[in-house]
TrEMBL record:
Belongs to the YmdB-like family. Fe cation 2 binds at E39, N67, H153, H178. It comes from Segnochrobactrum spirostomi. This is TIGR00282 family metallophosphoesterase. CDD domains: MPP_DR1281. Fe cation 1 binds at D8, E39, N40, H180. Keywords: Hydrolase, Iron, Metal-binding.
Amino acid sequence: MRLLFLGDVVGRAGRTAVTNRLPDLVERWSLDFVVVNGENAAGGFGITEEITQELLDAGADVVTTGNHVWDQREALVFIERQPRLLRPVNYPRGTPGRGANLFIGRNGARVLVINAMGRVFMDSLDDPFAGVAAEVAACPLGEQADAVIVDFHAETTSEKQAMGHFLDGRVSLVVGTHTHTPTADHRILPEGTGFMTDVGMCGDYDSVIGMEKDEPLGRFLRKIPSGRFAPALGDATLSGVAVEIDDRTGKATKIGPVRLGGALSQAEPAFWDAA
Ligand SMILES: [Fe+2]
Ligand SMILES: [Fe+2]
């Protein structure tokens, strides 16, 4: 099974990269399943129902989120009628929406997707390790699920790597999101789980984590806000990770970075031949 995971879509530049490039990639790489983190898709802050649909129409099967999930208040309402939009599973009981769901891939595989949020240097939710473990136990890989994908939305590299090792052998893929900067440590862990500390963002990298440079730079220099954060609108890089998952075991067999367009060095999975 061929899976593509794309990092946080930031503003219009990120959305344009996804809508322009993803339909072709789904076809060219014969993708069976696509997950896109959409927490910054609406002007850098949150996601609307219309934008969720835009990402799904472009080829996403599931849209995950993170700490910005409720920035657009309408998300609190429409998430209840959109099973393909996930929020972190470790929000308190009673929070709208869901943090995990089982989907069917284009190849007929049963794909469990889980979204969780870290606690180090972030708003501290419930224990993400226990939260993810409960979802995996309820729908185990090789039994009720043919593949299990975890988006761990967290600030620190250490917490994300700990989650990768915690789940090694029990899920197909653990990817970190939230820092908007891709790491070069994509690999398959010893027990067969694909892992990457952070997949980066789909956005304009000529920026400070996707935002126009002046305001964030000014706040570092003067410690006084002088305006609002606005997403950078230059040419965006589509940033994510491509993973081949064994249909029989649900473990990852190949993993490679994806960086297309914009300011970053370009990368494509060499193991999926372009037609
Ligand atoms: Fe983000
Ligand atoms: Fe985030």
